[in-house]
Specification:
Distance between the termini: 48 Å
Strand order of the largest sheet: 1-2-5
Mean pLDDT: 81
Number of helices: 1
Length: 114
């Protein structure tokens, strides 16, 4: 038996999608409440509270502006909150967990990092 490396142009009979729609051409959608892993070991996760716009995400040496606060497990503040702070990614000016999460965020996105 030989498998061919070809795409099928036949629409699934179980799909509600329009006939000319191809899911391979669509970028993945984020939704409020989605939980994403942001580090290789799975220790840093983010839960989306407000979906960002666009497809671009920041990378090493990008200049970003963000606001964040850190909380202890009991819910009390552990460090002062930072509001509209501009930093360069990769310069160790942010907590590592925040930097991992920011690399997985889009413009205007609001999330909770765990």
């Amino acid at each position: 038996m030989t498998l061919k490396d070809e795409e099928s142009d036949i629409q699934s009979t179980l799909s509600d999608a329009p006939p000319d729609w191809n899911s391979d051409d669509e970028p993945p959608d984020d939704h409020v409440g989605d939980e994403n892993t942001c580090s290789r070991d799975g220790a840093v996760r983010k839960v989306i509270q407000k979906v960002g716009k666009g497809l671009e995400r920041p990378g090493q040496n990008d200049i970003i502006t963000l606001s964040f606060s850190t909380l202890q497990l009991d819910g009390s503040d552990s460090l002062p909150s930072l509001s509209n702070t501009t930093v360069e990614m990769g310069t160790n000016k942010l907590p590592m967990a925040v930097e991992f999460a920011v690399k997985h965020m889009r413009v205007g996105e609001v999330c909770e990092v765990r």
